[in-house]
Amino acid sequence: MAELVASNLSVAAGGRTILAEASVTLRQGELVALLGPNGAGKTTLARAMLGVETQTGSSRLDGMAITSLSPIDRARMIAYLPQIRPLAWPATVRDVVALGRYAHGAAIGRLTGRDAEAVDGALSACDLQPLANRSTDTLSGGELARVHLARAFAAGTPLMIADEPVAALDPRHQFQTMSLLRRYVDDGSGALVILHDIALAARFADRLVWMKDGRILADGPVSETLTEARLEEVYGIHARIIESADGPAIIVRSPVAQDRP
Amino acid sequence: MTRWLLPSLLVASIAVLLAACFLGSTPMAVPRVLSALVGGGAAGDAIIVWQIRLPRALAAYVVGAALAISGAALQGLLRNPLAEPGVLGVTATASLGATFSLYYGLTALSVWVLPLSAIAGALAATAFIAMAAIRIRHMVTLILIGVGMASFAGALMSLLMNFAPNPFSLSDMINWMLGSVANRGLDDIALAAPFMIAGLALLFATKRGLSALTLGEEAAHGIGLDLRRQRLAVIAGTGLATGAAVAIAGGIGFIGIVAPHLVRPLTGHDPARSLLPSGLLGGVILVLADIAVRLLPTTSELKLGVVAALIGAPAFVWIAMRRRAHG
Hey, of A76, A108, A133, which one would you mutate to test binding to chain B, going by the most B CBs within 10 A of its CB? Predict the structure, then answer.
C-alpha cells in the first residue's frame, strides 16, 4: 500500500510563513479533500508534499524522503494535476493523455503494449474516445479538464494529488470529474484533491482537511469535521448546513464581521 | 506523424544538394557535372563540383539543419513558436564571438579558436536566455530580452567594425555579420562537425522532455521530467549546434523559426517529433536560398543571411500576429 506521509511541513517565502507545521497522510483507498480560503496554503502544501517546494519537515513516500526520489520514480507513484494552464501547443487529445506515460518511458506517437493500453483505458474512463484525435485547442473547458484527468489516470499511479480539478467547470462537469476521481479511489488508489466547493467535497470525499493561514485546523471524516462553527472559523462565514439524502447543502447567510484593529 | 513527411524531406534534401551541383555562375552541362560527380571528366569540372559547389551546398545544408533543430528545441523548451537562435540573439552573440577572435587575431593561434569562440558566444547567450526564462512570467518578455541581446551584440559588432584596421578585416567582419557559405570547404565543415554533432545528439537525447513541456513546467515536472537537466541539455545543445553553425556560415537568422513552423502541423504539434523533419527542411530551405544567391545576377553576390532574413523576418511578423494572446 502506497502511503504519502507529510509531517511538520513548513514553507517560508519572502520572510512570511505560508505553510506552518502541516502534517497529513494520503493513503490508497481514500479520497481526501483539502479545503480552505484563498491563500490558506493548500497548493503550497500539495507542492511541499511532492517535494517541489523548498521546505522544512518531511514528506515521505513509503518511508522514503520524497526529495530523495528522482522525478521519474516519484511520478510513477504519485500523479500530480496542477491547476490547469493552457497547453503550449495544440496537441491531440490522445497525445496529451499519452504524456501521462512519460515516467514509463513512452514516447508520444509511438505507444506500445502497456502504454497504449493505459492510454486507451484512461481515454475510455473519461469518455474521451470519440475526441481522441481532436486537437486540444478545439475543446471546451469541461472536455479539457477531462483530458488532464485522463492524463493523470494514464500514469497508473497508486496516488494522485489534484489542485482544483473542477475550477471553472459547470455543475454537471464538476460532478462528472468528481465521480471519475471517486471511481479511481474506489478502484484502490488514493487522491488528495484541493476544492473550493464544500458541498461537493462533502459529497465525494472520505476525509476533509481544513486549512487556514498555512495551518491545518482539522482533519477527519466529513461527519466529524463539517460543522457550522468550522465554516465560520475557516472561511469567516455564517453558514447553515442542511443534511439531505444526497449529501449536505451549505447555505451562506453572511460573512463574519471582521474585527478591525 | 504524417507518414510521407520524412521520406519526402529526405528525397528533397538529396534533390536540392544535387541541384546545387548543377547550378552556378559557370554554366556546366548536365553530362559534365554527372561525370565530374562520379569521378571522371575534366580536372577543372571536378574541382568546381567537388571543391566549390558540393562543399558549399553541404555547408548550407548542415547550417540550415542545425539552426532549424536548435529553433525547434528552443521553441519546445520555452513553449513559444517565436523562440529561435536568431531572434533570441544567440546567432548574433555567436558571430560576435567569432568576429572578436578574428579582430584580435586570435584565430592565428589555432584552427579551433574560431569555432570555439563562436560556440562560447552562443552558450553565453543561451545560458542568459534560460536564466531569464526562469525568472520571468511571460514568454513574450523573453523574446524582447532576446531582441535586446541581438541588438547589443550587433552594436558591439558595429563598434569592432568602426575600429577595423583595414578594409580587408572590415569585409571579413561583414561576412560574419551577414552570414554566407561562399568559399566554404569540407575542412570548415569538419572543424565544426564535432560540436554540431555533440549539440544535436544532446537535443535528440532529451527530446521526450520537450514533449512533456507541452503541459507547462509544473505539470511536466509532475509527470517525471527533471526540469533542471532538461534546461541544461537544451541550452548546451542549442549553444553547441548554433555556435558550430555560426562558425561555418556566420549569423543566419530565421531558419529556426520558418522550418519548425511549417513542420509542426504535420507532426501533431509535438516538439519531439518536429526535431528531425525541421532539421531536414531547414537544410533544404537554406540550400535553396543559397542557390538563389548564386544565380541572381547581382554585381556583388548577395549574402545568404540577408536572403534568409528577407524571407524569414516577414514570416516572423506573420507568426507573431497570428498568435493567440496566452503566451
Answer: A108
Cβ–Cβ of A102/B224 closer than 8 Å? yes
Residue A116 lies in a domain: yes
Q: Are residues B270 and A108, on separate chains, in Cβ contact within 8 Å?
A: yes
Can you give the pLDDT at residue B75? 93
Largest distance between two CA atoms of chain B? 64
pLDDT of residue A261: 52
C-beta atoms of B222 and A50 within 8 A: yes
Type of residue at A185 = V
With helix as H, strand as E and coil as C, how does B93-143 read?
A: HHHHHHHHHHHCCHHHCCCCHHHHHHHHHHHHHHHHHHHHHHHCCCHHHHH
B17-49 residue pLDDT tens: 999 988 877 777 888 888 888 877 788 888 888
Whether the CB-CB separation of B89 and B154 falls below 8 Å is answered with no
Task: Give Cα B197 distance to the centre of its chain.
Answer: 13
Query: Cα(B57)–Cα(B35) distance, rounded to whole angstroms?
Result: 18
Question: Which of A74, A75, A89 lies at the smallest CB-CB distance from B269?
Answer: A89
- Beta strands per DSSP E along chain A: 3-13, 16-27, 31-35, 56-61, 64-65, 78-81, 159-163, 190-194, 207-212, 215-221, 237-242, 249-255
Distance from CA of A124 to the nearest CA of B (A): 20
Q: How far is A39 from chain B (nearest CA, A)?
A: 19
3-state SS, residue A238: strand
Contact: A88, B214; criterion CB under 8 Å: yes
Place of cell 568602426: B162
A91/B226 touch (CB, cutoff 8 Å), yes or no: no
Number of domains in chain A: 1
- Domain ranges for chain B, please list them: 5-322
Beta bridge partners of A216: A211
Say what the ipTM of the complex is.
0.90
Q: Could you give the maximum distance between any two Cα atoms of chain A, in Å?
A: 64
Nearest partner of A41 among A251, A212, A226, judged by Cα? A212
What confidence score (pLDDT) does residue B325 get?
A: 45
Stated as kind and residue range, the H or E segment containing B79 is none
CA angle A5, A6, A8 (to 5 degrees): 140
- For chain B, the residue count is 327
In a domain? residue A261: no
Range of the domain at A67: 3-255
Find cell 518536429 and name the residue.
B274
The rounded distance, in Å, linking the Cα atoms of B64 and B55 is 14
Rounded average pLDDT over A61-68? 92
CB contact under 8 A, A95 and B270: yes
Q: How many CA atoms lie within 13 A of A112 on its CB side?
A: 5
- In chain A, residues with a C-beta closer than 8 Å to the C-beta of B206 are none
Task: Domain B5-322: give its CATH architecture.
Answer: Orthogonal Bundle (1.10)
Evaluate whether residue A260 is within a structural domain: no
R_g of chain A computed on alpha carbons:
19
Of all residues in chain A, the one with the smallest CA distance to B271 is A89
Average pLDDT value for residue range B242-259: 91
A118 assigned to some structural domain: yes
CA–CA gap between residue A56 and residue A43 (Å, rounded): 16
